[in-house]
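Ticket opened by: R.M.
Priority: normal
Category: complex prediction / small molecule

The reporter submitted a protein together with adenosine-5'-diphosphate and asked that the result be attached to this ticket for the collaborator who will pick it up next week. Submitted input follows.
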Amino acid sequence: MSTKVIYPGTFDPITNGHIDIIERASRIYDKVIVSVAENDPKKPMFSVQERVDMVSKAVSNMDRVTVESFKGLLIDYVRSKKVRVVVRGLRMISDFEYEFQMALMNRKIAPDIETIFMMPKANYSYLSSKLIKEAAQLGADISVFVPSFVEKEIKRKMSNIGK
Ligand code: ADP
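Result attached by the on-call engineer:
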């Protein structure tokens, strides 16, 4: 039986930490669907289409990985895809509380769906899309944190803000 998993997130934008988790998942599972949440309450910097395009570019060399977007409740979406495993990344202890709460809530709603946590390489464990955007806004060099095309997209977006 082949195992399909969903790796959901906002990916605003995708970072080297996300890519590390996708690579790890794709070494274990037959198919990884990276699912970009529209997630309007988070007020993403990039549109859902832009986020999907960046993730697609970042995983273009990984044949077990596909990318799509979804709206609404994660569990409903996971069920609609006939998937039973959700992958999440755990960086620091600070992620733990929120991820634990969410995994248990999802388990209550859908006991047949399991959440699996993966840890990134240690030198990616402090990376977050939010911090990278903040650092870029202040003029920091973010080239070691994201693929170069993502860095360009962040710069382009920032130069358009306020125009
Ligand atoms: P969300 O908006 O759902 O937190 P994110 O796009 O921030 O989504 O992240 C998606 C998933 O990837 C989450 O499980 C998050 O903890 C994980 N993640 C984010 N950055 C990293 C990283 N640097 N290393 C490992 N996991 C990460």
